[in-house]
Write a structure and sequence with these properties.
By secondary structure, the protein is mainly beta. It is about 5% helix and about 35% strand.
Length: about 150
Protein backbone atom coordinates (compact mmCIF):
# COMPACT_ATOMS: atom_id res chain seq x y z
CA UNK A 1 0.00 0.00 0.00
CA UNK A 2 1.16 3.47 -0.83
CA UNK A 3 0.61 6.30 1.61
CA UNK A 4 -2.01 8.80 0.57
CA UNK A 5 -3.18 12.24 1.54
CA UNK A 6 -6.81 13.19 0.90
CA UNK A 7 -7.35 10.07 -1.21
CA UNK A 8 -4.56 10.81 -3.68
CA UNK A 9 -1.32 8.90 -3.85
CA UNK A 10 1.89 10.75 -3.01
CA UNK A 11 3.55 8.96 -5.92
CA UNK A 12 0.98 9.69 -8.69
CA UNK A 13 2.95 12.52 -10.28
CA UNK A 14 6.25 10.68 -9.94
CA UNK A 15 4.91 7.47 -11.51
CA UNK A 16 3.24 9.40 -14.37
CA UNK A 17 6.34 11.45 -15.21
CA UNK A 18 7.76 9.46 -18.15
CA UNK A 19 4.33 9.10 -19.73
CA UNK A 20 3.03 12.67 -19.38
CA UNK A 21 2.46 14.55 -22.60
CA UNK A 22 1.48 11.51 -24.68
CA UNK A 23 -2.20 11.77 -23.81
CA UNK A 24 -4.77 14.49 -23.33
CA UNK A 25 -4.89 16.09 -19.88
CA UNK A 26 -8.53 17.17 -20.25
CA UNK A 27 -9.88 14.64 -17.75
CA UNK A 28 -7.13 15.42 -15.26
CA UNK A 29 -7.78 19.17 -15.51
CA UNK A 30 -11.56 18.76 -15.14
CA UNK A 31 -11.70 16.09 -12.46
CA UNK A 32 -8.25 16.08 -10.85
CA UNK A 33 -6.41 12.90 -10.02
CA UNK A 34 -9.72 11.11 -9.38
CA UNK A 35 -10.84 11.31 -13.02
CA UNK A 36 -10.97 7.51 -13.32
CA UNK A 37 -13.53 7.34 -10.50
CA UNK A 38 -16.00 9.92 -11.86
CA UNK A 39 -19.16 8.82 -13.66
CA UNK A 40 -19.10 10.72 -16.92
CA UNK A 41 -22.59 11.59 -18.14
CA UNK A 42 -24.50 13.00 -21.10
CA UNK A 43 -28.00 14.46 -20.82
CA UNK A 44 -30.22 14.83 -23.87
CA UNK A 45 -33.60 16.52 -24.07
CA UNK A 46 -36.35 15.02 -26.23
CA UNK A 47 -39.92 16.16 -26.85
CA UNK A 48 -41.37 13.77 -24.27
CA UNK A 49 -38.55 13.66 -21.71
CA UNK A 50 -34.84 13.34 -21.02
CA UNK A 51 -32.21 10.68 -21.68
CA UNK A 52 -29.29 10.37 -19.26
CA UNK A 53 -26.30 8.25 -20.29
CA UNK A 54 -23.71 7.29 -17.68
CA UNK A 55 -20.39 5.66 -18.55
CA UNK A 56 -19.67 2.70 -16.26
CA UNK A 57 -16.98 0.70 -18.07
CA UNK A 58 -15.99 -2.57 -16.45
CA UNK A 59 -19.12 -2.82 -14.31
CA UNK A 60 -21.81 -5.48 -14.61
CA UNK A 61 -25.53 -4.83 -14.32
CA UNK A 62 -25.75 -6.46 -10.87
CA UNK A 63 -23.04 -4.10 -9.53
CA UNK A 64 -25.18 -1.01 -10.18
CA UNK A 65 -27.88 0.27 -7.83
CA UNK A 66 -30.48 2.97 -8.61
CA UNK A 67 -32.49 4.73 -5.89
CA UNK A 68 -35.13 7.44 -6.36
CA UNK A 69 -36.05 9.46 -3.27
CA UNK A 70 -37.60 12.93 -2.97
CA UNK A 71 -36.95 13.64 -6.64
CA UNK A 72 -33.24 12.69 -6.46
CA UNK A 73 -31.92 9.75 -8.46
CA UNK A 74 -28.82 8.22 -6.86
CA UNK A 75 -26.62 5.91 -8.93
CA UNK A 76 -24.16 3.72 -7.03
CA UNK A 77 -21.69 1.36 -8.69
CA UNK A 78 -19.40 -0.88 -6.64
CA UNK A 79 -17.01 -3.71 -7.41
CA UNK A 80 -14.04 -5.43 -5.89
CA UNK A 81 -10.94 -6.94 -7.42
CA UNK A 82 -10.87 -10.56 -8.40
CA UNK A 83 -8.95 -12.93 -6.20
CA UNK A 84 -5.21 -12.43 -6.44
CA UNK A 85 -3.78 -15.87 -6.94
CA UNK A 86 -1.82 -17.93 -9.38
CA UNK A 87 -3.71 -19.38 -12.32
CA UNK A 88 -2.83 -20.85 -15.73
CA UNK A 89 -1.58 -17.47 -17.00
CA UNK A 90 0.75 -17.02 -14.02
CA UNK A 91 0.91 -14.94 -10.86
CA UNK A 92 -0.52 -11.41 -11.02
CA UNK A 93 2.22 -8.91 -10.20
CA UNK A 94 0.50 -5.59 -10.99
CA UNK A 95 -3.12 -4.73 -11.76
CA UNK A 96 -4.67 -1.42 -12.88
CA UNK A 97 -8.37 -2.14 -12.65
CA UNK A 98 -10.74 0.04 -10.67
CA UNK A 99 -11.90 -1.35 -7.37
CA UNK A 100 -14.25 0.44 -5.03
CA UNK A 101 -17.52 2.32 -5.24
CA UNK A 102 -18.72 5.54 -6.77
CA UNK A 103 -21.95 7.45 -6.32
CA UNK A 104 -23.59 10.28 -8.17
CA UNK A 105 -26.97 12.00 -7.67
CA UNK A 106 -29.20 13.90 -10.07
CA UNK A 107 -32.33 15.91 -9.37
CA UNK A 108 -35.10 14.66 -11.69
CA UNK A 109 -38.00 16.45 -10.03
CA UNK A 110 -40.56 15.39 -7.46
CA UNK A 111 -43.06 14.53 -10.21
CA UNK A 112 -40.92 11.57 -11.37
CA UNK A 113 -41.89 8.21 -9.87
CA UNK A 114 -39.92 4.93 -9.97
CA UNK A 115 -42.23 3.49 -12.64
CA UNK A 116 -41.55 6.54 -14.87
CA UNK A 117 -37.80 5.84 -15.08
CA UNK A 118 -36.74 3.33 -17.75
CA UNK A 119 -33.21 1.96 -17.33
CA UNK A 120 -31.05 -0.24 -19.55
CA UNK A 121 -27.38 -1.22 -19.38
CA UNK A 122 -25.47 -2.12 -22.54
CA UNK A 123 -21.73 -2.13 -23.34
CA UNK A 124 -20.77 -0.33 -20.13
CA UNK A 125 -23.28 2.51 -20.60
CA UNK A 126 -26.28 2.97 -18.31
CA UNK A 127 -29.13 4.74 -20.12
CA UNK A 128 -32.02 6.24 -18.19
CA UNK A 129 -35.15 7.75 -19.74
CA UNK A 130 -37.48 9.88 -17.64
CA UNK A 131 -40.31 12.34 -18.36
CA UNK A 132 -40.18 16.11 -18.26
CA UNK A 133 -41.99 18.01 -15.57
CA UNK A 134 -45.46 18.90 -16.80
CA UNK A 135 -45.86 22.53 -17.84
CA UNK A 136 -47.60 24.69 -15.29
CA UNK A 137 -50.89 26.05 -16.55
CA UNK A 138 -51.19 29.70 -15.64
CA UNK A 139 -54.67 30.98 -14.98
CA UNK A 140 -56.17 32.77 -17.94
CA UNK A 141 -56.18 36.55 -17.62
CA UNK A 142 -59.57 38.15 -17.79
CA UNK A 143 -59.55 41.66 -19.12
CA UNK A 144 -62.12 44.21 -18.05
CA UNK A 145 -62.94 46.76 -20.71
CA UNK A 146 -62.86 50.41 -19.66
CA UNK A 147 -65.54 52.62 -21.13
CA UNK A 148 -65.03 56.20 -22.01
Amino acid sequence: MLPSIFGESLFDDWMDFPFRGFESDVDRKLYGKNAARVMKTDLREHDEGYELKVDLPGFKKDQIDLQLQDGYLTITAAKGLEEDGKDKQGRLVHQERYSGSMTRSFYLGEHVKEEDVKARFEDGVLTLDFPKEPAIQLPEKKTIMIEG
